[in-house]
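Researcher: Here's the sequence for the chain we discussed earlier.
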Amino acid sequence: MAYFNHLQSERHFKWRFIDLFNLLIYLSCLYLLIHFMSEESNDLFQHRLIVLFATIGLWRYSWWFLNLIRALIYEFVTFPKLRKQANALYKSGWKPPHIYFVIASYKEQKETTEALLECILRECRSLAVPATLYLSADPQDERIVRDYVQQHVGNTAFQVIAIRQTLPDKRIALGQCLRSLSRHGVIKDAPVILMDGDALMTQGTLKKCVPFFHLNPNLHALTTDEKAIFHGPKWMAEMTELRFAQRHLMMQSHALSKRVLTLTGRLSMFRSQIITTPDFIDRLENDYIDHWLWGRFRFLSGDDKSTWYLLLKNKAQMLYIRDAMVYTVEHVSGNGFARTLQNLLRWSGNMLRNNGRAIALGPKKIPFYIWWCLIDQRLVIWTSLVSPIAAILLTAKLGWSFLPLYLAWLGITRITISLFIFRYAGRIHLSFPFLIYILQISNAMIKIYILFRLPRQRWTNRGNIVAIQQSTDDKLWLKHLMANYLTLLYTSTLVLFLALYTGALETYSWAEISRSVKLLFGF
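Model: Thanks. This is the structure I predict for it:
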């Protein structure tokens, strides 16, 4: 199939002349911007805003480089030892007793579904162990799966158990599959693989992953590296490359603490006796939180965050398999802006709905570094907006002389980060410095909006399902009014602080105020 021309099991960096030329152009423009900066702009280096930028910058970028160092330690020290042990176990003749796949597929394209099944059958043959696929799908998906398996299963010990999906609700679909798996009798310590219907495993994925459960009895879940086969606007493909490159770096940093911050829904593996417990399934199907303003509401998407939280709560170890690659197939029509906005709303909402309760577990229940990463997810919402708001205020007060200084700051800091991300992306993407800044601002604004409206959920990937606050009392309008008030209060407080700090808004002493009042009223 055409898909398999794109699949690479590991990341490899490629040098391209055009990329180096583009980078040279970027650095040259940055140099010219700094070199021809006006004297008036240079005088702004004495402004107190530089102290603020330097303080926040030192904090944010030192935190980022700490994650980079941790990722490199995991890549070159920790994981090679784990990989050596896993390879030795597999070469000794060990095999898992059984492999279980759980897939909730919803109206996927035929070519994608067949590519998914081809990957699964290939991986099962490579392990030569019995495998069962629990499939929750609509009738169209069922027919595609049945026809393909009948034609290609051959002598492979592979069975499909289909559960008819009556509602486009992924959580219910996964719960039905897991209940069926539990009723059929699950083999202890066998890996259960939760996959999306558009995820494609590269060759050797199962061999690389399943031995870790046998090596570490305390390991209860793992996830893999991820890339995309993208059909859509080029700028969205670049944004996806950036997101997965950043993910690869951060996941390695987090895995050094034997935890990760999400068990990716595209593909994650679980120890069988953990994921099939009634409490686990019930919470996956009907996960919820109790909010002080909105009351209790059910989660729509974010099943991967729910499974992650349940394991985190029980002090379960998790692992990131950095050399196992899974591809996701993305089809986007049109200009892609609406799809991007919906994705950012969904991802931000899933993070915020789980972030608070995970922080509440405290550093005694989860590793301190992971706990602080969760806190940082909240802090970065506000620190990301400091520089753009301050830049707007000072440009309004001082004129355009401030703009070159701000652009130079953005150019230097974003290209510095991008130089390291290029390695994980596989080549130099000149769009990264610009996308990093755009995503920083848009993510912060979206998260501020969602922060006070956590029940608002929309999932376009599942038939444009919308979840709203299911409150029937007459005070629902008051809750929306309170959410608007809190949004305005928090954002205006940040703007007011920056206006006062930067001098964009002048302050007066009580004596000056009294004198002005006397002159105004004539006494």
